[in-house]
Structure formats: C-alpha cells, structure tokens
Amino acid sequence: MASSPTSPPASPRPQHAPNTAFRALRGHLSPGEFAANVRRAAREIGEQVSCDARYIGRVEAGEIRCPNYAYERVFLHMFPGYSLMDMGFAPRESVRGRAARSHGARGGREAPRQTTVRCVEPPLGPLPPPTDHPDSTGLIAFPDCPEHHEESDVLRRAFMTGGPAALATASLGAAPGALAAGPPARPAPPTRAGDTEAAAVEEAVRRIRLLDDRHGGAGLYHQAGASLRAAYELLDAGARSASVADRLHAGAGELAISVGWLAHDSGRYGDARSHYAEALATARVAQDAALEAHAFCNTAFLARDAGRPREAVRAAQAGQQAARELGSYHLLSLLALREAGGWAGLGDRSGCRQALARAQRLFARGTTDDDPEWMTFFGEAELEGLEAQCWSALGDWERAAEHAERAVRLQRPHFTRNRALFTAELAGDLAARGEAEGAAAAGTRALEFLGPVQSTRISTMLGALAGRLRAYRAEPAVADFLHRQARATA
Could you count the other beta carbons within 10 Å of the beta carbon of residue 12? Predict the structure, then answer.
C-alpha cells in the first residue's frame, strides 16, 4: 500500500510589494478585529472563510496577490462598488494561471487562466463560488428566476444558450441555441485556438458546476457532452500559444471530470469511468498534477459507489501522491476521505479510522490560496457527510446518523443537491437504526428537493428507504412518506 502524505511541503514565497490599498480599508481596526469583520460578512452571505489576523497580515504584505473565490465574494460584499484591483489585488489571470496550480510538479511558466468579473445574481441568494463566471466581454447577467421548477427550467435554458451553445459558438462557429435544437452541421474548427476559445471551455465548466450544485446530474448529462466534444475538437485543432494550450488541456480535462460526474450521479457508471479516464490521460499528457489529483479523486469516488473498494483505495492514494506538492491541505483531506470510503467498503475499520483521522487533521489546517477552484463545495458539511458514509458502510448506524445529521445542519443553502443527498443519507441511517418515524420525516424532507434536484443517486437512495420502511406503514408519518415517494417516482 502506498503511503499517504500528511502535508504539502513548504515552498519559498516570492517577495511582493505591500498592499497599501487594502491596509487603508482596514482603517483603525487591528488585524484581528478586521478579520472578525470578514468572518461576520462571510456569514451574512452564506460563505465560509477561516480568516484571522495572520491572513490579513499576508494580504497587506502582498503575499496574497489575489484572494480565492470565497474571499473575493466576501470582500466585494464588504466594500460595495470596489473591484479587487481597487482593493490592491492583482488581476486573477496574472496569478491564477495553470502554472500556478501545478507549480512544483512542472515548474513551468505562469500563464493566464481567466478574467474575473462581478456577477449579477438571481434573487434566491448568493451563488456558490464555482459560479463566478469570467467572461471576456465583462458583465454576465443571470435571468431572474423563482425557486424550484421555474428556476430549474430557466437555468437549463441558460445552460443551453449561454454555456455549451456559447462554447460551440466560440469554438466551432455554431449558431446560438443550435445545440438545443439537435446536433447541427458545423463548420470546421479554427486552425488555432486562442484566449477566447480557452475562456469558453473554462466557462462551460463553471456553468455545469452551477447547475449540478442546484439540480444534480440526471437532467444535464447529454447536454454537457456537447461542450466536452467541442473542447476536445479545440485541442485537436491546436493552440496559438503554449499558455493557451495549457489552459485548453486543463479546461478540457476539468470538463471531462464534470461530465463524468454528471454520468456518475445519473447512475451511468460505465460512462463516468470513461470520462474520468479521459481526464486522467489529458492530465498525464499535459503533466498537470492538479488535474491528475482531481481525476483520481473522482475515480476513487466512482469505484466506491460501483462496488470496487480496493480500486477506490488505490485511486485515492494515487491522487494523494499527485497532490503532495500542490499546497492544498483541503485537497489532501478530501483524498484521504476517498481512501477512507474504500477501506470502509472493504470492511477494514482500522484503515478507515486512520484515513478519517488524517482527513480531519488536514482539514483543520484550513484553506490556502492553492485550493483548487472546484473544491469550493468542500466544507465542514461535506467532511461530516463523507464520514457518515464511511460509518454507514461499516454498519455503525449510530455514528453514521450522528455525522449525517451534522452534515444536514451545516450544509450551506445554495448547495441544494448536497442538502438533498445528506438528508437522504440521514433518513437511511435512521431507518437502519429502527427509527422509522424519524427516517420517514427525513425522507419526506429529502423528497421536497426532488423538484429542482434530478439525481438518480438520491432517487435510488429514497427508493431503498421506502422498501425498508414498508414494514412500518401503519405509522402515519411512514404512510405519508411512502405515498409521497410513490407519487414522485410514478
């Protein structure tokens, strides 16, 4: 068994000019007092940041040239009318290039990755950080959309006309909306792809993640495949510069993982395995350690769900090996949780406990500027939810229910799909403990998410719950759940 790393090695920090503009924003407050204000502002918009005086000191010293997406949203909330550059930060594309993500694995040049803009958000509350949509034209407007069914329809239309269709328009010359009408006869792709095409691939990834966070993968998988095909056509066409080639490889690989996850969540395990393998191959070709770690992370998750726990352990350990120099404690924590899930599937309680303890230690070390953008879903709720799954696999229903309940309580509101998932997990754990009434109540709450959320995985979990509770149908709460579940699947 390959040994798993416990922390990324330290690397020397370059010298940067002090950020005097941000220091001026702090005013007369001490760094600790200002950090408390940052945490308070984060809570106001449903964000989660572990800001302290040390972080403020690093910003003011110029060590943090551009904040991660969670901090960006908080700072923009704290100082309305200011841009990141007004606050003394460098443009994201000069800091967050692919070379920055894979520094240490390649030691290559720094390349621009994306442009950051402020977004007009819908009225249902702040969107998660992965949905900050960079766009070379400036402002991106989301349609006004009420909750549940109408929001689902609007966002899916936005995906078709502004996400994959926009990618096809930018890369292949297709007319806007053509993908929604069916595969068009498209002209040949451009001879060489440039920054516009690379940005279109990156944008497609963000839009897919937005919709998955809100709605799950069942209704999105086939549409998202059009973006993936267009991205790999761009790779085949070649790029105008090495930096664009790096962005295209990273973007296409991330897109393959996103489409693979939609397949995974829809129960299409064979398709998901193929897409994850495609992402891993792209990572190896591009020598992109960050993409490789992500591909192994999802491969481990899929292997666990598909009943291949030993493969899950091996993939998670390979991911930790790839991530060892990326500087992200949370990435290593998530990979340790994937490993724990594999050990739980093997019935190895000792191996599972060791991996869980390592995941918790790494998570406690906090966020860093090197945390991957795709990991913004990974907070305390996800940590609790994945641990609940481990104890459930080991048959320790009491611990499983305890952690699942914490996951439900801690999950941020805009991650609708995960709220449904953790609630369904809690229902299953309570049912296994013989708490039929509590399980039915949790199952009913999970069913309420199935309007906006289309996840085969969650629907299957609730179907299994119904089967387990039928013996208790005489209880009113159970009878109500069974009726609702049958109606939802009719």
Answer: 5
Extract the tokens encoding 128.
Answer: 């998660």
The region of weakest confidence among 79-83, 197-201, 306-310, 315-319 is 197-201
d(CA 99, CA 157): 34
C-alpha closest to that of 165 among 217, 226, 80: 226
Task: Find where tokens 């761009």 sit.
Answer: 234
Once rounded to an integer, what is the mean pLDDT over residues 292-298?
A: 96
For the segment 105-162, what is each residue's pLDDT rounded down to a tens digit?
333 333 333 333 333 233 223 333 332 222 222 212 222 322 233 333 333 333 333 4
pLDDT digits (tens, 9 = 90+) for 363-380: 999 988 889 988 888 999
pLDDT (0 to 100) of residue 247: 86
Nearest alpha carbon to residue 56 among 101, 18, 92:
18
pLDDT band at 69; cut points 50, 70, 90:
confident
Main-chain dihedrals φ then ψ at residue 141, nearest 5 degrees = -105, 125
Torsion, Cα of 424, 429, 431, 435 (10° steps):
-110
Compute the distance between CA of residue 119 and CA of residue 431 in angstroms, rounded to an integer: 43
Give CA separation, 223 vs 164, 272, 305, in Å.
Answer: 7, 15, 24
SS (H, E, C) 223-271: HHHHHHHHHHHHHHHCECCHHHHHHHHHHHHHHHHHHHHHHHHCCCHHH
The H or E element spanning position 309 is: helix 309-323
Burial 271-291 (b: 16+ CB within 10 A, else e): bbbebbebbbebbeebebbbb
Q: Which residues lie closer than 8 Å to 156 by C-beta, 6 or more apart?
A: 211, 215, 219, 220, 223
Assigned token pair, 320: 């930790």
* Cβ-based neighbour number of residue 360 at 10 Å: 14
Choose between 121 and 11: higher pLDDT. 11
Kindly report whether the global pTM for this prediction surpasses the value 0.85.
no
* Overall fold of domain 288-376: 1.25.40
In this structure, whether the domain defined by 379-490 belongs to CATH 1.25.40.10 is answered with yes
CATH 1.25.40.10 residue spans of the chain: 379-490
**Is 419 within 8 Å of 410 (Cβ atoms)?**
no
Higher-confidence position of 148 and 487: 487
* Sequence-ordered strand ranges (E) for 95-236: 119-120, 140-141
The answer to whether 339 and 4 are in contact (CB under 8 A) is: yes
Spatial contact of 381 and 410, defined as CB atoms under 8 Å apart: yes
Q: Which residues partner with 140 through β-bridges?
A: 119
**Angstrom distance (rounded) from CA 401 to CA 391:** 9
